[in-house]
Amino acid sequence: MIERTLVLLKPDAVKRGLMGRVISRFEDAGLKVVGSKMVLINEEFGKKHYYDIAARRGEKVLQVLLKFMTTGPVMALCLEGVNAVENVRKLVGGTEPKSALPGTIRGDFSHISFAYADAQGKAIENLIHASGNPEEAKQEIALWFTAEELHSYKTAHETHVF
Ligand code: GDP
Ligand code: MG
Q1: What is the pTM of this model?
Q2: Long-range contacts of 131-140 (CB under 8 A, 24+ apart)
Q3: What separation in Å is there between the alpha carbon of 25 and the centre of ligand 1?
């Protein structure tokens, strides 16, 4: 039941100075940060990460997404916890900020629609990437982190509370 999942704070989150507040959301929920680093990716790496987007969302979305994701550094995080993949997606909220519920990170910090982003010819800037399922999480963590960059440690709660 204890899982690890990949989270990216996308370039909009970094440039808006929201890294700390977003990480706090995950820490507040009791998820453990077991890996973190800032990375400026190139298109080639972006294609590896978003290898299935063209099939799922169309070639146009892949192109605008690659452009967006290479505009500045992202912060990559590996988070650990009970059903971490599902729990992180719940905290992050739906893909379209306009529809993302208040209380979720995307719902609280962004509001634009698919239609607006598409009309601008831009990716929807929704602050976060989070792995979609446990299988995807395994692949994505292996793509973004080496074994040495991932850490096992006990939180204060694990040491003193349980
Ligand atoms: P996620 O798992 O919620 O991030 O959603 P997807 O994996 O389906 O899509 C990846 C990313 O592509 C999203 O987070 C958006 O940034 C972007 N995106 C997805 N669909 C669209 C779309 O229809 N229009 C635009 N402009 N961007 C999109
Ligand atoms: Mg996705």
Answers
A1: 0.97
A2: 131/5, 131/6, 131/7, 131/85, 131/88, 132/85, 132/89, 133/85, 134/3, 134/85, 136/85, 137/3, 137/4, 137/5, 137/6, 137/84, 137/85, 140/6, 140/49
A3: 21
